Amino acid sequence: MHITARVDYAVRTLLELAAAGDAPAKAEGLAKSQQIPHKFLEAVLADLRRGGLVRSRRGPEGGYWLARPPGEISIADIIRTVEGPLASVRGERPEDIAYTGPAERLRDVWIAVRVNLRAVLEEVTLAEVVDDDLPAFVLELIADPGAWARREA
């Protein structure tokens, strides 16, 4: 899985907002605290607002804040809002792909990949990351030394 800058910035921004609680945060402050280019962040925040994950208010008392409690926003929600489906093959959903011959079962592999992505990304919420309270199954996954090993092509 390739995690784009857009997804990385969106997740980090929402983690900042989750940590801020109900207090609105200014885009400039969010950009500075996470070292995100301000113009890029503005575009990401617009996507997050359209996707219903953040609210905003203009003015001196304005800023951005989460539209839902951080325990109700999963990492998958954020990815889908800024990038679309978690797993796609050449821009198509895996279940819509058909292969023939020796590649016939490849669709099943892509669907299994999606299931595994969902298993983590739909279960981990902003609150769990901010509170340093990741689910036990995630901690088990990262406890495996192989999880940290780089594999070269």
Quick overview:
This protein is mainly alpha-helical and 153 residues long. Helices cover 49% and strands 5% of the residues.
Labels describing this entry:
153 residues; mainly alpha; Arc Repressor Mutant, subunit A; two-stranded antiparallel ribbon; 7 helices; 2 strands
SS-based class: mainly alpha
Radius of gyration: 18 Å
| Unreliable runs | none
User: Which oligomerization state do the chains in this entry correspond to?
Assistant: single chain
Helix/strand order: HHHEEHHHH
Describe it.
This protein has 153 residues and is mostly helical. The protein folds into 2 domains: 5-66, Winged helix-like DNA-binding domain superfamily/Winged helix DNA-binding domain (Arc Repressor Mutant, subunit A, Orthogonal Bundle); 74-148, no CATH class. Helix content is 49%, strand content 5%. The protein is built from 7 helices and 2 strands, in the order αααββαααα. It has helices spanning 5-20, 27-34, 38-50, 75-83, 106-121, 126-130, 136-143; strands at 54-57, 63-66. A two-stranded antiparallel ribbon has the order 1-2. Strand 1 and strand 2 (63-66) form a beta hairpin. The chain is globular and about 65 Å long. The chain starts with a helix and ends in a 10-residue tail after the last helix. The model has no long low-confidence stretch (mean pLDDT 94).
